[in-house]
Amino acid sequence: MSDKKNDAPRKVAAENRRARFDYAIEEVFEAGVALTGTEIKSLRTGKATIGESYAAQKNGEMWLYNAYIPEYLEANRFNHETRRPRKLLLHKRQIAKLGNAVEREGMTVVPLKVYFNDRGRAKVEIALAKGRKTHDKREALKERSWTRDKARLMRERG
């Protein structure tokens, strides 16, 4: 029997591909995000960027800062602000866990993906992560290239 959550088709609107290189990912969460109508329509075009965005706790709520969702061109005066803080919809226990990890352990909350689930709802995949040093990044690159070479050698041998 397959897990329904993993089979669901997801349309990725924005992806932070550099996050997995710059940070050591500890735990991943799925969060809803409070958006306006023009933001949803703009996200569906797939031109949003979350490369330099982050999430932080403020007044007991999680907020997504510095995520760029371009203006929706067909909406005239009712358009949204492109880099406004957006509220992340999480359970109180999850917010407390993320907040405590950021305060105590020096971790950060990084968005990995913005996507639409099978019901058409916009979701943000956020991760509790620890920043990597330059030597750690080099080590990760070496490891990745070695596994790639190892797989290639195994394919060539049979």
UniProtKB/TrEMBL annotation:
Record region (Disordered): 139-158
PROSITE patterns for the chain: SSRP
Subcellular locations according to the entry: Cytoplasm
CDD domains linked: SmpB
Entry annotated with the keyword RNA-binding: yes
Protein's UniProt keywords contain Cytoplasm: yes
Superkingdom: Bacteria
Keywords: Cytoplasm, RNA-binding
Main location: cytoplasm
Annotated PANTHER family: SSRA-BINDING PROTEIN, TMRNA-BINDING COMPONENT OF TRANS-TRANSLATION TAGGING COMPLEX
Function (record text): Required for rescue of stalled ribosomes mediated by trans-translation. Binds to transfer-messenger RNA (tmRNA), required for stable association of tmRNA with ribosomes. tmRNA and SmpB together mimic tRNA shape, replacing the anticodon stem-loop with SmpB. tmRNA is encoded by the ssrA gene; the 2 termini fold to resemble tRNA(Ala) and it encodes a 'tag peptide', a short internal open reading frame. During trans-translation Ala-aminoacylated tmRNA acts like a tRNA, entering the A-site of stalled ribosomes, displacing the stalled mRNA.
Family: Belongs to the SmpB family.
Record-given protein name: SsrA-binding protein
Native source organism of the sequence: Xanthobacter agilis
Source organism phylogeny: Bacteria, Pseudomonadati, Pseudomonadota, Alphaproteobacteria, Hyphomicrobiales
